[in-house]
From TrEMBL, chain A:
UniProt xrefs under PANTHER family: HYDROLASE TATD
SUPFAM superfamilies: Metallo-dependent hydrolases
Entry annotated with the keyword tRNA-binding: no
Protein name as annotated: TatD related DNase
Organism of this sequence: Botrimarina hoheduenensis
Keyword terms: Hydrolase, Metal-binding
Parts forming coiled coils: none
A molecular-function term among this protein's GO annotations: metal ion binding
UniProt keyword annotation of Hydrolase present: yes
TrEMBL record, chain B:
Organism: Botrimarina hoheduenensis
Protein name: Uncharacterized protein
Length: 275, 76
């Protein structure tokens, strides 16, 4: 089965992960800009990082037949540095012109401070001005519910097209208001701190598959790109058809990411042929 | 041996995750009963899990929680 991994931090992973993903059906990944584990001090550091994910990483993925796309943003954890954020935002439109850049992400909130909220608004406004897609990170653990509410409040104050915005890392207590407001949502499958494959399938069964993306993020922390395949297996083991699985794990990413014409992978439909 | 605080801090997230899985399992069962219009014919395993939750809320038995739960689950 062909799978798209819509949120994947490839620079933190090995070539073996690409190889195994290719062997397990992954045809494309999309890499949002991420926190490096420490707060960067210079806009040039971001610009080189954006070059890495928009120029170099697609060549590494191509070795395994995987298409690589990216997003650019200042990570919410670094948004407290207002001057840095402003300078990086000014450099981002150059990357919107890259052939594999799909938009702005992952922006969002970490501690939901006033500076983070202002940075989120500035990122979204820039994306809307340049007709880009948006990927929004919501906070972890105890900050999840409050941070997600703040994300929705910030977005409600802006002139946005909800269909072009994906709010990621939703869980059982945050999915409904995001879907109700018309946004796409993402389940991020982590071994411990986010959603699990089983809980993701529970939510798919409860809310249906419309405007839902599933990803494993897979960064430099405790994470595993194959939680996505675990989720496919759990989905199929509960009796959902192969076409339904394709709709969730391949076609939904095509539908959301394909709003940017650079993402040219088409949704698939199974067809029986006579012997 | 770890200090009491280390035990909590080192294993909190892992056990938070396990409890979320248990919560989701119970939600899954409730959704299934709602969809089917009836409970499972044999709820013995579920009843044992509920009994285990009760045991965990009380003081640790002399043999410890884990040994006590294993004896309970031996009924299946």
């Amino acid at each position: 089965m062909q799978i798209i991994q819509p949120h994947y931090h490839a620079i933190a992973r090995t070539a073996q992960d690409y190889e195994r993903m290719a062997m397990s059906g992954v045809v494309a990944v999309a890499e949002p800009a991420f926190w490096a584990g420490f707060d960067r001090r210079y806009p040039e550091t971001f610009i080189d990082y954006f070059r890495q994910i928009s120029e170099f990483e697609p060549t590494r993925a191509a070795e395994y037949g995987i298409r690589h796309f990216c997003w650019v943003a200042v990570n919410p954890k670094e948004a407290e540095n207002v001057a840095l954020t402003r300078e990086v935002l000014a450099a981002m439109p150059e990357f919107f012109a890259k052939p594999t850049c799909l938009g702005v992400g992952e922006t969002g909130l970490h501690k939901s401070t006033p500076n983070e909220c202002e940075a989120l608004a500035a990122h979204v406004e820039l994306a809307m001005k340049h007709q880009q897609l948006v990927l929004i990170h919501t906070p972890h653990l105890s900050d999840k519910a409050h941070g997600t509410r703040r994300v929705l409040e910030v977005l409600a104050g802006l002139d946005v097209d909800p269909q072009r915005i994906w709010i990621d890392h939703v869980e059982e207590q945050t999915i409904e208001p995001c879907l109700d407001a018309g946004y796409w949502v993402g389940f991020t499958l982590y071994p411990v701190t986010k959603c699990s494959p089983r809980r993701a399938v529970d939510m798919l069964e409860k809310y249906g598959r419309e405007r839902i993306l599933v990803n494993s993020s897979a960064d430099w922390g405790p994470s595993d790109p194959f939680t996505l395949q675990e989720c496919v297996l759990e989905f199929r083991r509960r009796g959902h058809s192969l076409q339904e699985a394709i709709e969730v794990f391949h076609n939904n990413p095509c539908r959301f990411l394909g709003q940017n014409p650079k993402f040219d992978i088409e949704p698939l439909r199974l067809e029986s042929v006579s012997r | 041996m770890l200090t009491p605080q280390q035990v909590i801090d080192r294993y909190y997230l892992e056990h938070r995750c396990m409890l979320l899985e248990i919560g989701a399992f119970l939600d899954r069962y409730n959704a299934a009963t709602e969809a089917a219009g009836h409970h499972a014919d044999n709820t013995h395993k579920l009843d044992l899990l509920r009994e285990a939750f009760q045991q965990l809320q009380g003081p640790a038995p002399s043999e410890g929680h884990a040994a006590s739960l294993l004896q309970l689950f031996a009924k299946v």
